[in-house]
Amino acid sequence: MEVKRIEGDFIGKGLRIGVVIARFNDLLTGELLKGALDCFERHGVDRVDVVKVPGSFEIPLVAKKLAESGKYDAVLALGAVVRGETRHFELVANEVAKGVAKVSLDSGVPVIFGVITVEDELQGLNRAGIKSNKGFEYAMATLEMANLMKKL
User: Fold this and answer.
1) Is residue 10 classed as helix, strand or coil in its secondary structure?
2) Binding residue per annotation — 127?
3) Mean pLDDT value across the chain
4) Is 56 one of the annotated binding-site residues?
5) Where does 5-amino-6-(D-ribitylamino)uracil bind (predicted)?
6) In 3-state terms, what secondary structure has residue 96?
7) Binding residue per annotation — 57?
């Protein structure tokens, strides 16, 4: 039996990446962006364009515009949704997740969901830099998917 394995790698050379980042909760999103840019630089990505939007809810629309432009091998969506006293948290988190998935499926361009959903700012800081930086991890997934799509 012949088995052919196809996997993405983490080589950034030749890749063009679009990043959509929410300004809201910028203490957290700024750290996620630092981690992502560190990853892209370490892996030799040729070009990264960063587009800022007001909040996480606005991410899918701009991700769609970037994905459909034909300029990017992948798009990374970065945001932070912090639970508050109302159901707003669930509404925003759910709609952003659905929107990002839809953009990726509709465009055929990998759009990586890098929106952290946390109970409070301390939990967010732990995920965005104090204990680890999820931005770096999301950037690694972006590289892997961009390269996988090129192989397919």
Assistant:
1) coil
2) yes
3) 95
4) yes
5) 24, 56-58, 80-82, 113
6) helix
7) yes
Residue 54: CATH number of its domain: 3.40.50.960
- The H or E element containing residue 74 is strand 74-82
Domain total in the chain:
1
Residue 25 lies in a domain: yes
Concerning whether 88 is annotated as a catalytic residue, the answer is: yes
Active-site residue, from 14, 27, 71, 88? 88
Largest CA distance in the chain: 57
10 domain residue, yes or no:
no
Residue 36 known to bind ligand: no
Q: Are strands 47-53 and 111-118 parallel, antiparallel or unpaired?
A: unpaired
The residue range of the domain holding 92 is 16-151
Structural domain contains residue 105: yes
Identify the residue whose tokens are 């397919």: 152
Is residue 21 predicted with pLDDT exceeding 80? yes
Rounded to 5 degrees, φ, ψ at 22 are -80, 135
